[in-house]
Design brief:
469 residues; alpha/beta; Cytidine Deaminase, domain 2; Rossmann fold; 2 domains; 13 helices; globular
Amino acid sequence: MTLLDVTMQERHLSHLRELVLPAGGSEGAAYVLFGQAHVGEDPWERRSRRRFLSYDVVPVPPNEIISAAPDHITWSTASFVRLLKQAKDDGLVAGIVHSHPHGPASFSDQDHRNEAELARLARNRNGADTPLLSVLVTGDGAVRAQAWLGGSAAEPANVVRIVGRRLALHGEISRGRRSEAFARQALAFGESMNAQLHALRVGVVGCGGTGSATAILLARLGVGQIALFDEDIVEATNLNRLHGARQADADAMRAKVEVLAREISELGLGTRVIPVRRWIGNPACRDALKSCDVIFGCTDDHDGRLLLNRLAYFYLIPVIDMGLAIDPQPNSEGVRELSGRSTVLAPGGSCLLCRQIVDPVLARDEDLKRRNPQEYERRKREAYVRGGGNPAPAVVTFTTATACMAIDELLQGLMNFRGGDGWAWQRVRRFDLVRDRSPGALANEDCPICVDTAYWGLGDVEPFLDRIG
C-alpha cells in the first residue's frame, strides 16, 4: 500500500485557521490547492510514497455558505467545481478544509459521507484517477488529513507536517521502542521530543567533516531514519575529522557513506540508516531526497547547494545548510577569521543565492567538471573556469562545532527551546572572537526561489525542480 503524508506551509495554516475557525464557534470551510511528490520507493519502508504539498489557499465565497453551526457546515458546490477546473488546468490537486471547533481530532461518519460525494464529483469532472484531499483543523490546534484516491474509503495521512518558521508534526506520532539511552534527553525536553525525533526522516548530504559529525549526532539524538549522500571514499587526509573512519577504511578505499552507516548501526540505538553513494544531482537520489522531512547540507559543492536550494521550496523540505570558513594568516601562524555558519532554507526565509552563499559560476564549472572532465581541464588551462586549487583548511573541533550549531537549529524548529519566533534563518559563529551574529540577506525582489512563491509547494515538475542543464 502507498504511504501517504501531507505537508502544509505555516502561512497557509494560519490563513486557514482564520477561515475555518470563525468567531462564534461555528464550523468553517475553505479550499487548498496541493502540489504532489511521487516517490517510487521510500528507502526505509521499501514502499511507494505520495506526499501532498500545500500550494495555495482559496476561500469559500461567503455567499455560498448555506448553513453553519458548531457541529456542521454546508455550502454550495459551485465554487468546488471552479476549484476542480483550476486544479486540472494548473496540474494541482484540490483539497477541502473544515473545522471541528470543539473536537474531536478525527473525521466523523458525516464527514466521510460528504467527502465521498465530493470525491465522486472530482473524478467525474477531472478523470478517474483524480485524488481529493481533506484536511481537518480543530479548535485546540490539531491538524489531520486524509485522501480519497479512488477507493471506497479515504486513506489517512500518516503525518501532517507544518513548515515555516518552525517544523511541527501532527498525527499519531509513534514513540517507537523506549530506550534508557534517551531518558536524560527526555528530562530536558520531554518524551514528545524523543517521539518526534524517532519519527523523522533526515537526509545528510556530504559525509566529510561536518557531515559525519552531523550524522553521528543525529543518531545519538534518536533520529529514527537517516539517509547519507556522498560519492567519495575515505582518504588518509580525512581521518582526523571524519567521525567513525579508520586507517583500514582509507586503505580499503571504502565509501564514506558505508563507513558512517556501519558506525551508526553499531551504536545500537535503533536508527535505520541508508547509504547512498551518489552525487545528489543523480536522478537515482530523487526518491530518497523527496522522502526526507529535513535535510542537512554538509557539502562545499556549489552545484549541489543550488539543487538543495530549490528542493527546499519546491518540496517544502527544510534544508539546514552549513559551512566552515578558516582564513589562515599568510605565515600560517594563527587565523584572520574562523567561523561556522548554519542557514535554514524554508518558505519565509531567504535562499542561498540571496545570501550570496553559493556562486552560480562555480556551480556551472563544477557541473562541467562532473559531466565532461576533459573539457573542464581545457577551459581551466585557458582560464575560463575557476577553482581547482588547494583544499580548504579544516579542523575537527570546528567542523564538529558547526554540526552542533546546525542540529541545535533543528531542535529549535521542533521544540522552540530558545523561545522567540522559531529558528534563526542564519547564524554565524566566530569561533576566534567567541561571538554569534545573525546576518540578514540582501533584498532581491525578483528572486524566483525565495521571494516569488510560484515554486513553493509545487512539487513534481518536468524537468526536475524546473532546472535546465
